[in-house]
Write a structure and sequence with these properties.
There is one protein chain. The protein folds into two domains: 143 residues, Jelly Rolls (Sandwich); 46 residues, no CATH class. It contains eight helices and eight strands. The strands form two sheets. It has a four-stranded antiparallel β-sheet with strand order 1-8-3-6. The longest helix is centred in the C-terminal third of the chain and has 27 residues. The radius of gyration is 18 Å and the shape is globular.
Length: 205
């Protein structure tokens, strides 16, 4: 998709504004700098089941989700899929380790609902660091958020029971949890669909 030009459509402007509103409490970006950045982004709409990227593909982009729902998943040698994480509005979405190592993606990212992303190139973004300190701060914020997601996920898998992990999942994704099929939830929790059914039945009783 072409990068946004100086003349944005109303949908472009709405999506960029949603991103700026989300970022503003974390990083104050001067208007001139934001306009420079905005001209180097693209807006991408994905339909349910579309992929942002598939495992094995090269990717150089970071996405910000303005609305929608995504799953990040690994595909095993036998074809089985393991859900690494779910992302929704306000999340930065990328394969950060692949960007740093400049290697193909280790996992896939798929839309679970009709979704909208603001896309920017990682190498282009790094060039902004020399323009203004706000961009280096934003880069740090993105890296920190991705790291916290990873550490939180590892901690939950290692230290919490399946029932505790399910409770945290429901808290984290709230009403969006209804959009995620139970077999995907079970994969995310690291349990079988049967085990998840038992937990749900126990709670109902």
């Amino acid at each position: 998709m072409d990068k946004l030009s100086g003349t944005h459509t109303s949908d472009d402007s709405k999506a960029l504004n949603a991103m700026r509103v989300h970022i503003n409490p974390m990083v104050s970006i001067p208007t001139e700098e934001w306009e420079y950045f905005a001209a180097r982004t693209s807006r991408r709409n994905l339909r349910q089941h579309d992929h942002f990227v598939r495992a094995g593909e090269e990717n150089s982009e970071i996405a910000f989700c303005t609305h929608g729902l995504f799953r990040l998943y690994y595909t095993m040698a036998d074809g089985a899929e393991y859900n690494k994480n779910f992302c929704t509005s306000g999340d930065f979405i990328t394969m950060y380790s692949s960007l740093l190592q400049q290697v193909p993606s280790y996992f896939s990212i798929q839309a679970m609902a009709d979704s909208e992303l603001i896309i920017f190139n990682y190498e282009d973004f790094k060039q902004l660091y020399n323009r203004h300190a706000c961009w280096e701060r934003l880069g740090r914020v993105i890296a920190e958020r991705l790291y916290l997601q990873k550490e939180t996920r590892e901690r939950e898998l290692l230290l919490y029971s399946a029932e505790e992990r399910y409770r945290l999942f429901l808290q984290r994704f709230d009403s969006l949890s209804e959009q995620i099929p139970l077999y995907h939830v079970a994969s995310y929790l690291g349990i079988t669909p049967v085990a998840l059914s038992r937990i749900r039945k126990k709670w109902r009783n």
